[in-house]
Design a protein that fits this description.
Layout: E1 5-18, E2 21-34, E3 38-42, H1 49-56, E4 65-75, E5 81-83, H2 89-95, E6 100-103, H3 107-110, H4 117-129, H5 133-146, H6 152-155, H7 165-177, E7 183-187, H8 195-212, E8 215-219, H9 223-229, E9 232-237, E10 240-246, H10 247-252, H11 257-264, E11 300-315, E12 320-336, E13 340-344, H12 351-358, E14 366-371, E15 374-375, H13 381-387, E16 391-394, H14 398-401, H15 408-419, H16 424-437, H17 454-466, E17 472-476, H18 484-501, E18 504-509, H19 512-518, E19 521-526, E20 529-535, H20 536-541, H21 546-554, E21 578-580, E22 590-594, E23 597-600
Parallel strand pairs: 3-8, 3-9, 6-7, 7-8, 13-18, 13-19, 16-17, 17-18
Antiparallel strand pairs: 1-2, 1-4, 4-5, 9-10, 11-12, 11-14, 12-21, 14-15, 19-20, 20-23, 22-23
Helix pairs in contact: 4-5, 5-7, 15-16, 15-17, 16-17
Enzyme class: translocase
GO cellular component, one term: plasma membrane
Function: Part of the ABC transporter complex GsiABCD involved in glutathione import. Responsible for energy coupling to the transport system.
Length: 606
């Protein structure tokens, strides 16, 4: 590792102009990053981590911020050191993407929905590297293979909405790496990724850093990722740096109280061993009343049987169906009132599609879904709309699921207004109560989504889902974009609401430690099928299916002594879920290995 800093941030101060006057996003932050070094910046959402990185890219101005003080020194390949804070935007356009690459947090907003993946990947190569269209396409194909996207050739001609969240994030990573930048800023690059892909992307960034001497600024809230990746750690809190040190110092001898809180809030795989029911996180400094473990009830809330969802792949001049994506294949399970069933698996395994199919946001081709005695599949559109009062969804990307043009109070009130459940005077009180419930200040009622951090936006989405007092909430990666302390608070909030209101949760996630913390039952999905299902303790402590075992092995652990090496991450590529028209896989056949613990047998139509 060289001791020459590629970038130095000195006394950075960033201010944002709001209706209520100027707000300081970053007060006084200084740190440097050397060639071949990874500096992890950790802290809560709203602490100024992303603002610091957007300042380095000089993108903060486009979000309404101004760099009010400080210097941003960057050592260019040719031309020596320059102060990015004073550089004009035309030179910044040359530096951005070419010398400083950035991986953004929300892949759906980082990609342009009207251009194909191939067009977006090749754009930087053609602008900065002067490649021909054919050369750029060949390089783009290599990049997609490097970030392990299946069927890379086909993906180049697809649009972002045709890919799963995890795949979109891998495209964004490939775009950032395209021009082999000197400095790579990774803003929560693995939040939307499942554990196996996350482990491989981390290994990929680590390998690039070693081979090319790229400096990496890695912004994350996941302390397990920090333990895996960091050389040095900068801890931020409310716009200030509160602690900086080597990764060993931060993990083994944290000095600041906030760092201690942050480390205490990390759910660790194996913590729930020997416990029968989900339990809330114990947060330091939290004076809230203790929530009892949630036992749930024996009353059936949801029964899903033989659920199958396929998407047509069209082609040719007449856009005929030439193949089908078998997204969900013969999925069956039950969920009782006041209990949580988690579906886990890699991106593209069908877990989000299963959640949407149950709510009929995506129309399944077969199967039955019965919610509290109502056959959801048999409902006509009008009756389905009325039934949706009982089933709500919290989506993965809160920025995409909230309306950017509506104030937050109006968005949380909208479901109640749509269904005419409460009158005008009660509505304001109920919205304010929901904001209190999800621990957001009432001053946020007048704000718009872009004025909030990712974690705060997700709480608004949860408040909106609760507005109608539903019986079932499908939480699709609801906490994957949140930092650890906020994630712990939101999980505790969800468990508290479950205890108080008897909610049933279908919790879709790739984060095994979170799943272990909140679940009563777990279903592991692979290629559209549930390959293993049973009580949490049985699946986590005695995994039987080879895929479940591989998934457990890939989980990053917030412990320096258990860092993964690249040879630990030996995953088989996932076969394609696309099959020709007329292909009919066999039914799912299960073997009961323990009471209630089922494993898919090999004779199921694979």
């Amino acid at each position: 590792m060289l001791d020459t800093p590629i970038a130095r941030i000195e006394n950075l101060r960033v201010e944002f102009e709001t209706k209520d006057g100027p707000v300081v996003g970053v007060e006084d932050v200084s740190f440097s990053v050397n060639a071949g070094e990874t500096v992890c910046i950790v802290g809560e959402s709203g602490s100024g981590k992303s603002v610091s990185s957007l300042s380095l890219m000089r993108l903060v101005e486009y979000g309404g911020g101004t760099i009010a003080g400080g210097r941003l020194i960057f050592d260019r390949k040719e031309g020596g050191e320059i102060d990015l804070a004073k550089t004009d935007q035309s030179l910044m356009r040359t530096i951005r993407g070419n010398e400083i690459g950035m991986i953004f947090q929300e892949p759906m907003t980082a990609l342009n929905p009207v251009f194909t993946v191939g067009r977006q990947l090749t754009e930087g190569l053609r602008v900065h590297r002067g490649m021909s269209r054919a050369q750029a396409r060949a390089r783009a194909l290599d990049l997609l293979k490097e970030v392990r996207i299946p069927e890379a050739e086909r993906r180049l001609d697809q649009y972002p909405h045709e890919l799963s969240g995890g795949m979109r994030q891998r495209v964004v990573i490939a775009m950032a790496l395209a021009c082999a930048p000197r400095l790579l800023i990774a803003d929560e690059p693995t939040t939307a990724l499942d554990v196996t892909i996350q482990a491989e992307i981390l290994a990929l960034i680590d390998r690039l850093k070693r081979e090319t001497g790229t400096a990496v600024v890695f912004i994350t809230h996941d302390m397990a990722v920090v333990a895996q990746m960091a050389d040095r750690v900068v801890v931020m809190f409310r716009g200030n740096k509160v602690e900086e040190g080597t990764v060993e110092q931060i993990f083994e001898a944290p000095a600041h109280d906030y760092t201690k809180v942050l480390l205490a809030a990390v759910p660790k795989l194996g913590e729930m061993r020997g416990k029968s029911w989900p339990e809330p996180m114990k947060l330091l400094g939290s004076d809230k009343h203790e929530i009892k473990p949630i036992v749930g009830s024996d009353d059936l809330l949801l029964r899903v049987k033989g659920l199958t969802t396929r998407f047509a792949v069209t082609g040719g001049f007449f856009r005929r169906t030439v193949a089908n994506v078998h997204a969900v294949e013969d999925v069956s399970f039950t969920l009782n009132k006041g209990r949580t069933l988690s579906l886990v698996g890699e991106s593209g395994c069908g877990k989000s599609t299963a959640g949407r199919s149950i709510l009929r946001l995506v129309e399944p081709i077969a199967g039955e879904v019965v919610l509290d005695g109502t056959d959801i599949m048999a409902l006509a559109p009008g009756a389905l709309r009325r039934a949706r009062v009982d089933m709500q969804m919290v989506f993965q990307d809160p920025f995409a699921s909230l309306n950017p043009q509506m104030k937050l109070a109006a968005q949380v009130a909208e479901p109640m207004r749509n269904y005419g459940l409460v009158n005008r005077s009660e509505m304001d009180d109920r919205v304010a109560m929901l904001f209190d419930r999800v621990e957001l200040p009432r001053s946020f009622l007048r704000r718009f989504p872009h004025e909030l951090s990712g974690g705060q936006r997700q709480r608004v989405a949860i408040a909106r889902a609760l507005a109608l007092n539903p019986k079932l909430i499908v939480a699709d990666e609801a906490v994957s974009a949140l930092d650890v302390s906020v994630q712990a608070q939101v999980l505790n909030l969800m468990l508290e609401l479950q205890a108080d209101l008897g909610l049933g949760y279908l919790f879709i996630s790739h984060d095994m430690a979170v799943v272990e913390r909140v679940s009563h039952d777990v279903g592991v999905m692979y290629l559209g099928r549930i390959v293993e299902r049973g009580p949490r303790a049985a699946v986590f402590e005695n995994p039987q299916h080879p895929y479940t075992q591989a998934l457990m092995k890939a989980v990053p652990i917030a412990d320096l002594r258990r860092r993964k090496t690249e040879k630990d991450l030996n995953f088989k590529p996932i076969p394609s879920p696309i099959h020709p028209v007329g292909y009919e896989p066999g039914p799912s056949v299960y073997k009961e290995v323990d009471p209630g613990h089922f494993v898919l047998t090999s004779e199921s139509g694979y």
